[in-house]
Every structure is written in C-alpha cells, then in structure tokens.
Amino acid sequence: MQQAIPYRNWLTNTAVGAGGSTATPAQTGTESVRKLVAENAVVVFARRGCCMCHVMKLLLHGHGVNPSIFDVDEVNEAEVSNELSILLGSGNSAAAPPPFPAVFVGGNFFGGLEEVMGAHISGELVPKLREARALWL
User: Fold this and answer.
1) For residue 15, pLDDT beyond 70
2) Which of left, alpha, beta for 127 (phi over 0: left; psi -120 to 50: alpha)?
3) Boundaries of every domain in the chain
C-alpha cells in the first residue's frame, strides 16, 4: 500500500518564471533576489495562501502577463522581507518591509496590491507592462 505524502513535505518553495528559472530557499540571498528581479519583466513576491496575493496573480494573468512568482511561507518570510528591504534601499531593520504581494515591473518596485490596482483602474498598468516587455499587444 502506498503512503500518502503530507502536503507540507511535498511542496517545495520555488519561484518559477516564464523561462522556467527557479530559486530555492537556500539560494535566496540578496544577490539571487536581485537576479530574479533583473532577469524577469514582472516578479511577484507572494505570501502562500494569501487571498490578496491570489487576486494579484489573477489580475496579471488576466492581462496576459506571465509573472515570475516567488511564494513566501512562514519559514522564510522574515528573510525575504529583509532581502526586499535591502533591495529597495531602506536597509535598516526599523523600516517597514514591503507589503506582500510585492510586485516588481521592469526591474523596479511597482508596489503592492493597492498600487497595482490603482494603476489598473487609472489605465497606467498596461503601458507600464508594455514598457517592461511583459505585454506584447
């Protein structure tokens, strides 16, 4: 008889982009976060199981964008938040970490759900995505 694999043990924390690139937790230093942001047109750092992160993914997929998604869980949330703070230049631990979902478009921090939704409503999102070459039409 086969033994069931527990859900937690089966999942691996990876970020998969359109090109199939992956980053595991052991590789997620500041350099690999920078590399992930620099090599992909759109990157979403999302908390696993977060409904707002799911909405962000649906919004981007609805526009025809295939973002690289880095799922953050309880184990590596503090580490990823610190790496993102360093990447954004705040660097000090007293500064508030970026919100999840944290979206990078064209190598620059675009914002969280409120900023992306606001850009979508105002019509600024599609031109930004085209500029970053995430949209072709």
Assistant:
1) no
2) alpha
3) 7-131
Nearest partner of 43 among 96, 101, 126, judged by Cα: 101
Span 54-61, mean pLDDT? 94
Distance CA(8)–CA(107), nearest Å, equals 31
108 or 9: whose pLDDT is higher?
A: 108
pLDDT, mean of residues 96-125: 91
Six-digit token string for 38? 């620099």
Neighbours of 31 (CB within 10 A): 11
What's the CATH fold of domain 7-131? Glutaredoxin (3.40.30)
Q: Which residue has the tokens 């859900």?
A: 7
Per-residue pLDDT for 13 more than 90? no
Give the β-pairing of 42-47 and 68-72: parallel
